[in-house]
Design goal:
The protein is α/β, with parallel strands linked by helices. The chain has a single domain, classed as Rossmann fold, CATH 3.40.50.720. It contains ten helices and nine strands. A seven-stranded parallel beta sheet has the order 3-2-1-4-5-6-9, sandwiched between helices. α1 links the parallel β1 and β2. α1 packs across α8 and α3 runs parallel beside α4. The longest helix is centred in the middle third of the chain and has 29 residues. The chain is globular and about 50 Å long. The N and C termini lie far apart (44 Å). 40% of the residues are buried.
Length: 275
């Protein structure tokens, strides 16, 4: 794996959605690269447990920031806390996110609004708040954890999920172009099916267990690919881990849109509950 080498160990990474899954794995791999970590998620007990493990195993410093990013004030509160502690973030991982089950009108508008706050607004705000220090220091890395869902046609149910992930891809592309000469690398990591708690939260465990093993990746491999993609000499702005996922993404670009839409609809019925 590509290592970002510095003489100064006082380098900080910030990971949202850090308490489990891909977010927790980012914390582990960044800690192994001698980054101190700011862990952000709602579950304080999980953050404290992970932080203790990271400090014990890697000898780094950790700060836990229990926060619900659906609160509009959370991003500014986090930035203010960092400023008070004289912490400048070098590696930002915008990972927090979730899908709202059901069709668009089955869920309350507040559920959708909270989801958009977490997956869009908080990502943009945190990036806006933390990017200037990276530009000033002429060194920084930003990873938006998007999804293969952002590269294929939208599917029924979890209506806004694919749309928000597609936004993160375009956002990463624009940021990458704007910062070509600033020493800041930006990438959208687009995993497919990854073994995490995500599908349990959505109540999809039974469907997941029925899917073929070749469609799945471990969070360890996904995160390793994501870090390599953003830290290599020529960063991958859109980083799709796994041959199967890259094949699917390529098909989605090459095949007629009507056909890819039909294929997406067919597959979504296999793993999303159709009420």
């Amino acid at each position: 794996m590509t290592r970002v080498k510095h003489a100064d160990r006082n380098r900080w990474a910030l990971v949202t959605g850090a308490s489990a899954g891909i977010g927790a794995e980012f914390c582990r791999q960044l800690a192994a690269m001698d980054y101190s970590i700011v862990l952000v998620a709602r579950r304080e007990d999980r953050l404290q447990e992970l932080a203790a493990d990271l400090v014990s195993q890697y000898g780094i410093e950790c700060r836990c920031f229990p926060a619900d990013l659906a609160r509009p004030e959370a991003g500014r509160e986090l930035a203010d806390r960092l400023a008070q502690d004289n912490i400048e973030i070098e590696f930002l991982v915008n990972n927090a996110g979730y899908g709202v089950p059901g069709t668009f009108t089955e869920a309350s508008w507040q559920s959708h609004a909270d989801s958009l706050q977490v997956m869009l607004t908080s990502v943009c705000e945190l990036t806006w708040l933390l990017l200037p220090a990276m530009q000033r220091n002429r060194k920084g890395y930003i990873v938006h954890v998007s999804s293969l869902a952002g590269l294929v046609p939208g599917s029924a149910k979890h209506t806004l999920y694919g749309a928000t992930k597609a936004f993160l891809i375009k956002f990463a592309q624009s940021l990458a172009m704007e910062n070509l000469d600033n020493g800041v690398s930006v990438s959208a990591l687009c995993p497919g099916f990854t073994y995490t708690e995500f599908h349990d939260v959505l109540g999809l465990r039974d469907q997941v267990d029925e899917m073929p093993a070749w469609m799945w990746m471990d969070a360890t491999d996904v995160v390793r690919f994501g870090i390599e993609s953003v830290t290599q000499e020529k960063p991958r702005i859109v980083a799709v881990p796994g041959r199967a996922n890259r094949f699917i993404a390529t098909l989605a670009k090459q095949l007629p849109s009507r056909l890819t839409q039909a294929l997406t609809q067919r597959q979504s019925r296999r793993w999303r509950k159709q009420d």
